Task: inverse folding
């Protein structure tokens, strides 16, 4: 009995070792442990064994059985691993083949810049507001200290609908509309389209965008204007950006300034973008003119404020190194997909 | 405005700085320097030499060999110039020197042209004699220079001296951008005053004293101003025994640097005074002034007048004219007349320095179509005090330059000059306003340098007549700020009550529109808001359509840009066509743009501006691709009910059988469809194209970003497929309306999985199949629940003539 058992064990272990496939292994398992398997047969022969011997023999059989099961299991794992390896090898792909993209569309570069500017100012507590593009002469000029006959009107090449209604030449009328509402303090920006009668060429467009900013409160100072715009420039162009305020003139601010930022291409050393100067002009600003405050019903003795206007296209062209403004309005897919 | 630095320095003698320092400091104090060029750029080692001998070149007919005395030695130079003679004094570039350009006067090379000793046809040449073009200038500016030849100095020029210095080219020309409020700075004296204040040096304007001949000008001329509203001051002086000659070199050089071509002493003096004082002047030939009388009055409508450039000009009753006793002799502030112009034989000159109404001059110049140097200055509105100062300066120069004899006195017809403006000096308020702590003394010192007098008795600042731009407190604060230095003002952030930054709901909806359109493959376009009225024809829009009632620009850039759009499609279609013509495949574009709808015409109140979300594409995809984008958007802005698609929209620019109005909760919120082939052809899009438009104000009404979590279904769903034979004219939308309406609460969803029309279906019918999914939130559905719902649905479908397919 014992010898028989040992022989069966040897035979089956040998079969397991020489097995080449999962199916073969399964056959071995059935042949050994199945209903008609060799071990089962031995157990069936237990009745011929001395009763006193039975527990010992039973234990031997069980040990062999357990050993065989372990061997089967380990061989199965081995075979499965081998099989998986083969499959994985057959599944190798060329990972450098082209990606399958969802063909997501692209945002207009103007909008990317506008959203960036909005994000910065909203973070500083500004509300984003809108105003009409077809605007009353009063809001576009008169209320901004630019009465009829003022030279600034000619400089802006206004499109007129009639004597009283124009296409706004600037986003500044939104200042007046906001002030007129009488809710103080004010911190707002107003992005939008503006119009000037310039023929279309590489650097001009009769339709373009500005972003107006306005802050009105008690004790607003020129220093606050400087600090706010310096902060804005750093956010938009990078932490290292320096700003320079140059005196200028606008009818609706006094004092007024033009603001240059250190060239964000060369860092101020001078390059073709800044025409060698190291500085790039980006916006106009100033302290809101007392007359403008009064006309909008705000007492200039009590309140002060500052305003600024950024040319959106100017920043877009500079930031993305776009050399022709017409590209912004042609909507060539090959242009748009670069943003 | 261009000005030589040497002219500024003449009135700010203490000024000493590099060009760059000057540029930076002036810009930071408010006189913006646009750029500057050195007039001696690339002019190196150039001296005055005298030609002592000229020999023929042994091997070249067109060359000569000159021995030139350059002071320290005599050198040999070979030249091909035709105009040199023994004894001439000429500019000579020595070996190793440089000139600015070639003798042809073409564009100047950036680095100039280096000159080296060498041989010309075998003969040694140790330098080069120069033409005015090679020195970087032109005969325009140096009228005495010969055409096509070497520049010849006057005989008194010192041999061996710096030729560049002698030519007045050791200078820098600055170009300024002057803002329109600073009329006073359109002049040398104005800029010099600013420069003096900027560099804190004394300002020394020219001392003007006129030596006259003792006669009285009133014996020569009288002046009558009829339209005093357009002419607040008219000054006239007379000079006689005029001797026309070239003006002196110093004057020619200053004018040339300012870009004004020297002509003769008389013309040059008026130009010189215009540049120096910012006061345009005019000189009439007094002998042509009938009755020796000047009358200033408006022209008559339809008058025609010949200006001194020979052109005939049409006038109207708003144009101010200078007339004599019989006729018009000049357009005030714009240009003189042919009939009174100065000719070389003039003997007696009438000078005019006047102050005209700025806006009137601007408008007149525009209407007549001639904007002259004079009109562009007059239109800014000049200081009447300056007119008298300028005319005296001109007379002084006439006398000093030996150009003529000055008749004593001035005819001065002047409206009362306003008293000096007084502005309260509030130093504390200025500091509070600027955020600074500038000392009172520093402020007062600034005022003094700017010639703003401080009256310590009243605590007021007296504003001189040339500073009309200073009107109140803020202007005074600016004067303090710009001379203190904007860069020295601290940087702070506004204090005070905190405010909440926000963007409006409408703007958030637009952002979402951009996001969804882009996820769906559409790129953002931007197009002009104005377009051609022919757009309506291109879009086949009916002649009497209200869409043809537009906001129209009265002065457009051309008809193509003359109306504000009322239909949002033209921009996107034009852009699609642009891409199609460039063979870009599968182009998908969207735009968020406005349409401008007049409430009444002619426009009395502002039009309604409605933002439109416009999508358009050609290439891969179809009507349902576009419909999918629309529904993605509506779902993402909380419009989760099923929109109704009305196929009877009848828009003429869309395919009659492939278009629909989009209706949401009984409101039409937009439309979509395939472009009508006729429209596609009009735009030159040679393939099927699809568009969709959503009216954003409607979306704002219906949309919400509020969401509530509804839970994930816990109980199993039951699905049923129904396959129907449907009369062809029945729309899926009608079937779906019945499913939604009759399925009850337990109908969770339905989806179409098959639609077929063809051989196995009887004529006039189509087959449609849906999967319906039923589920209850609170229990497992029983067979009976589903059967009851299905019965109701089938009942409803039968009413539409729909049969279940067996």
Result:
């Amino acid at each position: 009995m014992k010898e028989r058992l040992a022989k069966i064990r040897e035979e089956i272990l040998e079969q397991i070792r020489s097995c080449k496939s999962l199916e073969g292994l399964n056959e071995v398992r059935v042949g050994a442990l199945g209903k008609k398997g060799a071990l089962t047969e031995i157990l069936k022969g237990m009745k011929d064994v001395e009763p006193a011997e039975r527990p010992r023999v039973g234990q031997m059989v069980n040990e062999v059985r357990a050993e065989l099961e372990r061997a089967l299991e380990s061989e199965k794992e081995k075979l499965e691993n081998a099989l998986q390896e083969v499959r994985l090898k057959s599944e190798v792909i060329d990972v450098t083949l082209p990606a399958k993209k969802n063909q997501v569309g692209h945002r207009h570069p103007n909008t990317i810049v506008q959203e960036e500017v909005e994000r910065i100012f909203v973070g500083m507590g500004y509300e984003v507001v809108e105003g009409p593009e077809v605007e009353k002469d009063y809001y576009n000029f008169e209320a901004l200290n630019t009465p009829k006959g003022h030279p600034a009107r000619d400089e802006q090449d206004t499109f007129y609908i009639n004597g009283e209604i124009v296409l706004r030449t600037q986003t500044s009328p939104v200042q007046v509309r906001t002030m007129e509402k009488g809710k103080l303090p004010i911190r707002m920006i107003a992005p939008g389209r503006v119009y000037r009668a310039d023929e279309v060429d590489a650097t001009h467009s009769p339709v373009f965008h500005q972003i107006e900013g306005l802050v009105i409160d008690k004790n607003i100072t020129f220093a606050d204007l400087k600090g706010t715009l310096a902060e804005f420039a750093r956010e938009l162009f990078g932490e290292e950006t320096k700003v320079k305020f140059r005196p200028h003139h606008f009818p609706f601010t006094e004092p007024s300034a033009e603001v240059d930022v250190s060239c964000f291409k060369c860092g101020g050393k001078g390059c073709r973008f800044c025409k060698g100067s190291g500085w790039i002009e980006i916006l106009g600003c100033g302290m809101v003119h007392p007359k403008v405050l009064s006309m909008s019903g705000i007492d200039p003795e009590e309140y002060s404020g500052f305003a600024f206007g950024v040319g959106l296209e100017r920043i877009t062209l500079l930031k993305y190194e776009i050399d022709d403004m017409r590209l912004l309005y042609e909507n060539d897919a090959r242009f748009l997909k670069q943003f | 405005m261009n000005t030589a630095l040497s002219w500024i320095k003449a009135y700010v003698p203490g000024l000493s700085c590099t060009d760059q320092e000057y540029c930076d400091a002036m810009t930071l104090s408010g006189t913006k320097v646009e750029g500057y060029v050195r007039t001696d750029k690339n002019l190196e080692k150039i001296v005055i030499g005298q030609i002592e001998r000229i020999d023929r070149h042994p091997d070249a007919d067109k060359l000569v060999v000159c021995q030139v005395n350059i002071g320290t030695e005599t050198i040999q130079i070979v030249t091909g110039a035709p105009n040199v003679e023994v004894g001439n004094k000429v500019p000579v570039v020595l070996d190793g020197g440089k000139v600015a350009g070639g003798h042809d006067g073409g564009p100047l090379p950036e680095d100039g042209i280096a000159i080296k000793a060498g041989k010309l046809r075998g003969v040694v040449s140790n330098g080069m004699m120069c033409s005015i073009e090679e020195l970087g200038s032109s005969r325009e500016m140096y009228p005495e220079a010969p055409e096509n030849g070497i520049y010849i100095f006057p005989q008194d020029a010192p041999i061996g001296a710096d030729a560049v210095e002698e030519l007045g080219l050791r200078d820098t020309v600055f170009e300024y951008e002057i803002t329109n409020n600073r009329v006073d700075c359109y002049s040398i004296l104005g800029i010099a005053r600013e420069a003096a204040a900027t560099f804190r040096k004394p300002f020394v304007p020219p001392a003007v004293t006129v030596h006259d001949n003792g006669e009285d000008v009133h014996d020569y001329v009288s002046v009558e101003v009829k339209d005093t509203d357009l002419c607040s001051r008219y000054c006239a002086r007379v000079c006689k025994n005029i001797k026309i000659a070239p003006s002196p070199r110093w004057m020619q050089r200053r004018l040339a640097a300012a870009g004004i071509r020297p002509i003769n002493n008389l013309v040059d003096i008026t130009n010189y005074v215009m540049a120096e004082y910012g006061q345009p002047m005019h000189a009439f030939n007094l002998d042509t002034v009938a009755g020796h009388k000047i009358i200033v009055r408006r022209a008559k409508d339809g008058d025609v007048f010949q200006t001194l450039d020979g052109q005939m000009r049409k006038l109207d009753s708003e144009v101010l004219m200078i007339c004599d006793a019989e006729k018009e002799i000049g357009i005030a502030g714009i240009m003189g007349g042919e009939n009174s112009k100065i000719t070389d034989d003039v003997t007696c000159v009438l000078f005019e320095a006047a102050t005209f109404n700025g806006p009137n001059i601007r408008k007149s110049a525009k209407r007549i179509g001639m904007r002259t140097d004079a009109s562009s200055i007059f239109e800014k509105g000049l200081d009447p005090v300056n007119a008298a100062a300028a005319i005296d300066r001109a007379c002084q120069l006439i006398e000093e330059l030996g150009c003529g004899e000055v008749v004593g006195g001035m005819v001065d017809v002047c409206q009362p000059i306003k008293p000096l403006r007084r502005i309260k000096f509030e130093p504390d308020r200025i500091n509070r306003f600027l955020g600074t702590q500038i000392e009172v003394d520093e402020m007062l010192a600034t005022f003094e340098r700017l010639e703003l007098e401080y009256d310590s008795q009243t605590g007021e600042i007296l504003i001189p007549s040339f500073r009309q731009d200073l009107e109140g407190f803020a202007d005074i604060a600016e004067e303090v700020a710009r001379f203190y230095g904007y860069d020295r003002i601290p940087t702070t952030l506004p204090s005070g009550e905190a405010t909440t930054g926000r963007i409006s709901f409408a703007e958030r909806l637009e952002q979402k529109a951009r996001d969804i359109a882009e996820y769906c493959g559409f790129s953002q376009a931007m197009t002009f808001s104005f377009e051609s009225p022919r757009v309506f024809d291109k879009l086949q829009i009916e002649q009497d359509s209200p869409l043809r009632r537009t906001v129209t620009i009265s002065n457009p850039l051309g008809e193509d840009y003359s109306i504000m759009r009322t239909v949002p499609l033209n921009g996107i279609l034009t852009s699609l066509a642009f891409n199609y013509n460039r063979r870009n495949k599968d182009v998908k574009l969207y735009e968020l743009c406005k349409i401008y709808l007049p409430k009444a015409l002619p426009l009395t109140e502002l039009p309604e501006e409605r933002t439109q979300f416009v999508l358009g594409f050609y290439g891969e995809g179809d009507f349902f691709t576009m419909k999918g984008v629309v529904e993605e958007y509506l779902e993402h802005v909380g419009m989760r009910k099923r929109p109704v698609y009305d196929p009877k929209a009848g828009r003429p620019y869309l395919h009659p059988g492939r278009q629909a109005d989009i209706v949401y909760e009984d409101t039409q919120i937009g439309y979509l469809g395939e472009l009508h082939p006729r429209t596609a052809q009009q735009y030159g899009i040679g393939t099927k194209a699809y568009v969709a438009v959503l009216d954003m104000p409607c979306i704002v009404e219906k949309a919400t970003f509020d969401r509530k979590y509804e839970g994930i279904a816990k109980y199993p769903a039951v699905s049923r497929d129904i396959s129907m034979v449907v009369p062809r004219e029945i729309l899926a939308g009608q079937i779906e309306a019945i499913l939604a309406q009759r399925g009850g609460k337990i109908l969770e969803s339905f989806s179409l999985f098959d639609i077929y029309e063809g051989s196995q279906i009887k004529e006039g019918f189509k087959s449609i199949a849906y999967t319906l999914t039923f589920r209850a939130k609170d229990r497992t559905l029983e067979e009976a629940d589903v059967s009851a719902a299905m019965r109701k649905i089938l009942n409803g479908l039968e009413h539409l003539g729909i049969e279940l397919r067996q």
About this structure: Chain B has a mean pLDDT of 94. Chain B touches chain A through 88 residues (CB under 8 Å). The two ends of chain B are 92 Å apart (CA to CA).
